[in-house]
Amino acid sequence: MSRNKPVVVLVDAYTSGKYLPPEFIALGAETVHVQSTPEFMPSMPAPDLGDYLANIVHEDVDTTVELLSKYEPVCVLAGQEPGVTLADTLSERLGVPTNGTLLSEARRDKYLMIETLRAAGLRCAEQFKSGEVADLVGWAQRAAAYPVVVKPLKSAAGDGVFICADADEVRAAAEAVLSSDTIYCETNREALVQSYLHGAEYVVDMVSYGGRRYVCGVWMYHKRLLPNGRNIYDWEHLLGADEGPAPALIDYVDRSLTALGVDYGPTHAEVILTPDGPALVEVGSRIAGNMHPGFHDACAGGNQATLTALAYLDPARFLTEYAGRRYTLRGQGVCSTTSTGLSGVVTGADQQVVAELTGLETVFGLNLKIEPGGRIRPTVDLYSSTMRIFLHGSTMDAVRRDQLRIEELKDRVYLIRPDESVPTSVSES
Questions:
Q1: Starting from the edge strand earliest in sequence, which strands make up the sheet with 55-57, in order?
Q2: What region, left, alpha or beta, does residue 364 occupy, with left being phi > 0 and alpha being psi -120 to 50 degrees?
Q3: Rounded Cα distance, 402 and 391, in Å
Q4: Residue 178 in contact with residue 229, Cβ under 8 Å?
Q5: Pairing of strands 375-376, 344-349
């Protein structure tokens, strides 16, 4: 059939993927959603299907390609991490701009990802994977100085990531990973142990089209190590594109994306600046988790969601106006992720406390991550954090002042009753 509007296909548009449909629609497109699993993943809120012409529940590639062909899509991309490999397959089969399937697994599997970078001569961690706890412990004892990192091969948001100081901690971490599923409901049949990368951690977000890239932001993470070896997110702040290590980080990520075969779409790379230079933690072929289009526009002059839509729908304009360029810092941008030690069932929010938070001078926006009826629990990773708060101000002193007040108020936001039997329901990762 011939359509009046271009059709865009999004695969697994969970969490920050929800920001993509409005941007494509604003540029005149229609959207179709592909759900890679029979049921929506319970760890994340289901996509709002009201933005889509249809939701296709994937069963096999041939059937899904046939169903999508009727819409004559102009592109297929992942809305969230679990959709990456299927989006690669579908885009390749449909003959639209694609990163292809040759390196698709390396863009999801953290072991293959790092080995691909190593083969390209890029700096990266030493590593070993196995489904046997004893083998993981043995490698840590022989091959790496402590601490080491143990984590799943295909998860995200700090899920199942442990920093281990000795063999006993490696053993406990490996057992925990191998006895669990990821946040994407995938069974961990193997675990990954890596040498610890010493240094500050940064994020580099980009959008690519035809191998040419626009840098949307370089952020510095501020994390906190818990006694149990879990490293939780506290806040991140936006650097200037030419500030400090930003140029070196941008160059390293650009080369990493080339090595991983990323020619199209948004990417979210986490990098450690070691004493020897940048080294990749991982890169996701999707938009950043801290996405808030208006916030990013305010502090960086653009955002990944809008620019992703522009790249696919008007590539000539993207290549002319954005490719090969970098964002411009506009004031101080900070994304805070609040943690908690509370436990129970959320019955609602104290609107007076919420109003005080949103009324702070530098607070640009606030996302309550737990819906009424969901369970609040002590924070161990990004998914168990309680709020995401976006701050934008003229000075870091003003932002930090408001962050201190947020810390004082954060555990007064939710109304809670004790009940350990209700599953967690989060509104955003």
A1: 55-57, 30-35, 7-11, 75-78
A2: alpha
A3: 8
A4: no
A5: antiparallel
How many whole angstroms separate alpha carbon 349 and alpha carbon 372? Answer: 8
Domains assigned to the chain: 7-98 (3.40.50.20), 126-195 (3.30.1490.20), 200-417 (3.30.470.20)
- Encoded tokens for 263: 């020619």
- How far, in Å, are 206, 324, 403 from residue 254 at the CA level? 9, 11, 33
CB atoms within 10 A of CB 4: 6
Contacts with 215 (C-beta within 8 Å, 6 or more apart), sequence order: 204, 205, 206, 241, 250, 325, 326, 327
CA distances, 236 to each of 16, 199, 202, 248, 280 (Å): 17, 15, 9, 19, 18
Long-range contacts of 52-57 (CB under 8 A, 24+ apart): 52/10, 52/21, 53/7, 56/32
Structure confidence at residue 144 as a pLDDT band (50, 70, 90): low
Average pLDDT, the chain: 93
Return the pLDDT at 428.
Answer: 40
For residue 110, what are the CA distances in angstroms to 2, 89, 132, 275, 393? 41, 19, 18, 22, 36
End-to-end CA distance of the chain: 37
Strand 387-393 with 332-338, pairing = antiparallel
Structure tokens of 312?
């696919």
User: Which residue type is seen at 45?
Assistant: P
What CA–CA distance (Å, rounded) separates 330 from 142? Answer: 48
DSSP code for 276: T
- How far, CA to CA in Å, does 218 sit from each of 299, 395, 419? 12, 18, 40
Q: What residues does 146 pair with on adjacent strands?
A: none
**How far apart are the C-alpha atoms of 272 and 179, rounded to whole Å?**
28
Question: pLDDT, tens digit, for every residue of 257-281?
Answer: 999 999 999 999 999 999 999 999 9
- This prediction has a pTM of 0.92
Cα–Cα separations (whole angstroms), residue 358 to 42, 185, 390, 393, 409: 29, 34, 10, 14, 11
